[in-house]
Amino acid sequence: MPDEFIMHGARDAVAQGWTHIDEQVRATEEAVFENPSLAFDLAKTLVESACRTILNERAVAFDKDDDMQVLFKLTKQNLPMLPTDATAEREARKSLEQTLNGLNTALQGVCELRNAYGFASHGTDGTRAAMESTQALLAAQSADAIVGFLSRVHRQEPAAPGERLTFDDAEDFNSYIDDANEPVRIFELEYRSSEVLYAVDLEAYRDLWLGFDPAESSAESDFTAAEEERFE
After folding, report:
1. pTM check: above 0.90
2. Per-residue pLDDT reduced to its tens digit, 27-63
3. Domain edges within the chain
């Protein structure tokens, strides 16, 4: 086992301007082998800090008490996981999101395992100490990969002021979705398809919106109307 650990992804984020997480990064690196029980909490805190930074810079509201899982999900929803010229590659986006979710699950899982069973809480022999450092290393590596990836995506396609997509800003697009899909019904309640997509999968909504061509949708609507009139 190495005697030091370097968070290359997180250090890159620091070098690119996230200097406020520098102390967290260094503390996590040191804790992996010197104080592994602390490294678990630091790894989670580092991911939370990265998510809060991105959400703040993209003017996305969140609650100060939101935990890592909530912040991570909200951050994913507001980041373009693929370049704008690849918005049609839904399967690629899905695969990429699954990979990122896997890293987050690894981080969350090993932290929960440590909290539940406390690898070093039943003794101080060398075997248990080494085991806890191994788990701490997994948590820190997962956090490093997550922070590095999120920061790079955020930098590559920053959100310009006032560009955050809201449901009311895309009425033509919403109508296009609603015309192409049936309303969503739950018992006696009925919801617009566009409204449901925006609420449950903002990233997919955004991807479709980026590839939306109002001129094409208008032509399709005119063609459909003409066809319907022809058969009346």
Report:
1. no
2. 999 999 998 888 888 998 999 999 999 998 888 888 8
3. 8-156, 167-230
